[in-house]
Amino acid sequence: MHERLSAERVAGTRGPLSASGPAAAHSDWLAVRPALIDLASLPYRRAGRFAYHFARGKLRGDPVFRALLERGLLHGRAHILDLGCGQGLLTAWLRAAAHCHERGIWPRGWPEPPRARTIRGMELSAREVARARRALGAECAVEQADIRGAPFGSAEAVMLLDVLHYMSPESQRDVLERVRAALPQDGLLVLRVGDADGGVRFRLSRWTDQVIALARGRGLLRLHCRSIGEWQELLRACHFDSTAQPMSGGTPFTNVLLIAQAA
Ligand SMILES: C[S@@+](CC[C@H](N)C(=O)[O-])C[C@H]1O[C@@H](n2cnc3c(N)ncnc32)[C@H](O)[C@@H]1O
Q1: What 8-state DSSP symbol labels residue 73?
Q2: What is the distance in angstroms between the CA of the first residue and the CA of the last residue of the chain?
Q3: Which stretches within 42-122 are classed as H helix?
Q4: 135 lines ligand 1 (CB under 6 A)
Q5: For ligand 1, what atom is nearest to the CA of residue 212?
Q6: Ligand 1 atom closest to Cα of 160?
């Protein structure tokens, strides 16, 4: 029922969207955004109140979801692997984007959303995996696995959003080396990290991680963070060329998106 309501909302969004140019694209985005967030988060009602409200809050507040679509980062990548995928929000977001785009509800000037043939997720927490499966259906490919050891298979793009700082420096390097081995020559890694040189805002993001972990009964975390320069050096050592883009707009954090091409 919720998906039907949401589809009605999409259909009710006014189109064609306004004239061209950055200001028009932004106003198009403001028109499309509520439908996209509804569509992507409503399946999580099946997974309980927490999962639903978490999905809405995260999709609303985290700038990475818009950036992935606006910049066409995953365009043309048929096989995507989302490591540390949590409750599978990326899959839900890309499904919602495809749905909106098919109905002509899409910001003018934005690239088409990615049409991946497979989106596989790997996630350590059994609870998150259960939420992902309940929301996204039995056909969703979210596997409970520890990415520090699980085989990755092959992919054209790998996502690692806010995950690597949970593991030791040695595991970070090992994971990145195995990600590189899973990708072809022009493969893409999208990595989001906090900038350890980010001062008070960085400390606030680490504190937030700790509070969330405590609230979820995971106890005190040992986090392993680096400056952006150090992350890029590690990426180079693992045979990636990377560019860094700020990715904390609208939040008090110092997050950075590292867009890394397999060299
Ligand atoms: C901050 S959340 C980010 C979730 C998701 N990437 C997103 O952006 O919505 C970090 C996730 O990484 C997962 N994680 C941490 N260490 C992991 C490991 N060794 N293997 C698999 N998942 C892991 C956590 O369980 C958690 O769901």
Answers
A1: T
A2: 47
A3: 49-61, 63-70, 89-102
A4: no
A5: 1
A6: 6
Ligand 1 pocket, 162 CB below 6 A? yes
Domain 2-262 class?
A: alpha beta
Per-residue pLDDT of the chain (263 residues; tens, 9 = 90+): 344 434 445 444 444 454 667 788 788 899 999 999 999 999 999 999 999 999 999 999 999 999 999 999 999 999 999 999 999 999 999 999 999 999 999 999 999 999 999 999 999 999 999 999 999 997 789 999 999 999 999 999 999 999 999 999 999 999 999 999 999 999 999 999 999 988 888 888 888 888 887 887 777 788 899 999 999 999 999 999 999 998 987 777 789 999 999 99
Residue 68 CB–ligand 1 contact under 6 Å: no
Instruction: Kindly list the distances between the CA atom of residue 47 and the CA atoms of 44, 129, 134, 216, in Å, as whole numbers in the listed order.
Output: 5, 11, 5, 16
Instruction: Report whether residue 129 contacts ligand 1, using a CB cutoff of 6 Å.
Output: no
Residue nearest to atom 26 of ligand 1 (CA): 86
Cis peptide before 114 (omega within 30 of 0): no
- Who contacts 10 (Cβ-Cβ below 8 Å, separation ≥6)? 35, 38, 39, 99, 100, 103, 105
CA of 27 to the centre of ligand 1 (A): 33
User: How far does residue 161's CA lie from ligand 1's centre (Å)?
Assistant: 8
Distance CA 255, CA 114 (A): 24
Q: How far is the CA of 77 from the centre of ligand 1 (A)?
A: 22
d(CA 58, CA 44): 12
Going by alpha carbons, the residue nearest to atom 1 of ligand 1 is 162
> d(Cα 215, Cα 217) in Å, to the nearest integer?
5
